[in-house]
Amino acid sequence: MEDIIRKLPHKPKVNSLKKTLIYIIVISILIWAFSGLNYRGVMSTAQGTIVGMWNGLLAPDLEYLNNWTIDGLPYAIVETIAIAICGTFVSGILAIPFALLASQNIVGEKVSKIGKFIITMIRTFPELILALIFISIVGPGAPAGILALGIHSIGMLGKLFSESIESMDIGVKEGIESCGGSHGEILFRAVLPQVAPEFLSYTLFRFEINVRAAAILGLVGAGGIGAPLIFAIRSRRWDRTAIIVIVLIITVTLIDLISGSIRKKLV
Amino acid sequence: MLPELKSKLPTRPSRVKLYSNIILITLIIISSAWFAGFDVIDIFRNFFNGFDMIGRLFFWPDWAYTDNLLSPLLETIQMAIMGSVVGAVVAFPAALLAANNFIEIKWLNKLMRFILNIFRTIPSLVLASLFVAVFGRGSFPGILALSIFSFGLISKMTYESIEAIDYGQVEALTSLGASKMEILRYSILPQVLPQFMSYTLYAFEVNVRAAAVLGYVGAGGIGQTYQIWLDMRRFDRIGMIIIISFVAVLIIDFISSSIRRKLV
Amino acid sequence: MIRFENVSKTYANGTVALTDINVEIKEGEFVAILGLSGAGKSTMLRTLNQIIDVTEGHIYFNNVDINTFDMYGDNPEKEIEKRKKADKDFDPELLDLREIDITELKGKDLRRMRSNIGMIFQNFNIVKRLSVLQNVLTGRVSYNPLWRTVLGIFPEKDKEIAYKALDKVDILEKTYHRASDLSGGQMQRVAIARSLAQEAKILLADEPVASLDPITTFEVMEFLKKINVEDGITTISNLHHVDLALNYATRIIGVRDGKIVYDIQVKDKPNNEIIDDLENVYGRPINQKDYVGED
Questions:
Q1: Could you tell me the residue range of the domain that residue A251 belongs to?
Q2: Domain B74-263 has what CATH class?
Q3: Inter-chain contact A136–B49, Cβ cutoff 8 Å?
Q4: Average model confidence (pLDDT) for chain A?
Q5: Looking at residue A144, which CATH number applies to its domain?
Q6: Looking at the domain assignment, is residue A12 inside a domain?
Q7: What is the DSSP string of C240-252?
Q8: How confident is the model at residue C295 (pLDDT cuts 50, 70, 90)?
Q9: Phi, psi (deg, nearest 5) at residue C8
Q10: Would an 8 Å CB–CB cutoff place C167 in contact with chain A?
Q11: pLDDT single digits (tens) B190-241
């Protein structure tokens, strides 16, 4: 056995040092983060609140569900979906030029870096704030929400689109270039046909996210189910809260399912 | 065209389906726009208000206000870290249960996936408002909301990863008599762990953005102050908050993406 | 040592993989299973350690201690002597040797039975992200309690077994390397070392050299032969190449359409006659493709 031990190579020690350092850093960050957990316990009214929520869940406000007027739940949900549809559509169109500007194989290295930076800036801007800004421009209501979603979604779609463009087969573009195609023709006959299925898939994916986002934007007054929801919570109308949340979950799940199956057929 | 050639041509595939899809989608979009009252022309008219608003936000933001923002900003980051970590810790076992190649009990897999889906459909802002009603204002409800959201996000991506592993390694360990836990430790974990950590970091990036606005409903972080200044119409301060959040997110995104690239 | 009795396997989608397999394999044999792709070779191998179950039939292992599921093979007295020498506390009185049907085992018993059987694969199935040493140590999981295996803290004794195994296949210098750094042939050797660390009595090899270049192929086959001859490990290997079977195996079994159609000890006939016989197994004459290459 001893001669085998002698033949053994040295155990590499360098890796262990780096690993230990990383562990120490990560654990310190975690300790710092959890120190901020100031659990002040539940509110004195918590018990009543939870009981109220539970009761609301068991007996949701079905009257609100059946209210087919402009004040009712169906209208609000449809408005939410409409906001998501329009917002996604706007961003889908607007994202294309941004994506082209951010793609290395279209505009070259330097310009694409600027394009990518712009897209990241747009992505990072919180939708809620964007909605607030648009409300002060076009007034409260659905159009503000559409604009907020439309602009913000450019961030995500622009990034995904440009990644698509950058990974496409360069041969097709060269093919059109070599037989004398102009920039416009290259765009329409080489680039877009290749990436169109992926674009559609990403756009649908963003639509799924936007339905959720549209539900929230109502919180600040940009239309949709958000406003009635936050009113219900603030006024502690748990039966109404429950029905809104239930319908919201069902709606989002259905849309996810439909959108998901379409996306599967695309790619 | 010569009649012989014409008869040899294959029939052109029907484009009816494509055209009807396009018409359907166009109808949906137009009716949505009408329903929402989205009048493009109206918007153009009001556009100049926009520049005024942007001007008030960013020219000239209240730089002095930065000092007061540091603490809420750190709180926001803490919330995001905690939410991601707690969500991740719970997500891993959940993903194991949901994956159809580890615990192969079909009804359990379907049930887990269903539950995970529900968690992913509730926006974190809604969850945060509900938790504020129970726990009062502060960062705790926000952390809870972020944890639940992260749980939904990370577990889905993780179970898809688990289902995509190279099964050969699992077969090898099964054949030498390893138990489920040992198979997990030696064939699944090495393949899935780097991706799992990458997903957790991604959730963290999303959470930092979300945490920045959770304060709007009183759930802690830098967002709590938006409402106050909006009411007081101090747009210079709001502009500063936006800029600081913005810079923080950029830096964190950058660090997080670099780490993620090294992982996978 | 191993006895297939009326083994049949039909998959859920209706494919009939094996029909009425009856064969006995003695300890120490080096069996090469030949046949076309889809003939049932892989299925047959996998029923042996039950990673695929059988639809009908039994697979018996003789002289298995019912308490520990250790295998004592065709010569239990010899094996008992070996153990007495290795372990002073070994008490032969406690042994209860029976013939075990692996198709009836489940759970922990099945796992303990499997630890006697090593398996190597065409795709090596080594954990790429772990080191060579950690890969070989996974062969020791059935000999250690759960807390040790999950935390990866193996006792020194197990590590020595691992080093010995690595030395046997001549790859000790790569002990601490990450498995992904290795070439195909080296990975297969690590897989063999893993089975050695298991202290397996039987080694199943599913197309072990199909992914390797000719020179590495011979290297790996030499190691398989070495452990078969020196350590008495019963080896059963699926092979694509006729010349490998003739040069390394002691016995050739031909499988066609899920049935055994040929079974011969290699030394019983001259090679060219065996090659002619194999036409019956493949349904066509043996040609260049069935040979590894320049020898």
A1: 49-170+199-266
A2: mainly alpha
A3: yes
A4: 83
A5: 1.10.3720.10
A6: no
A7: S-HHHHHHH-SEE
A8: very low
A9: -130, 150
A10: yes
A11: 889 988 998 999 899 888 888 877 877 777 777 777 777 777 777 777 778 7
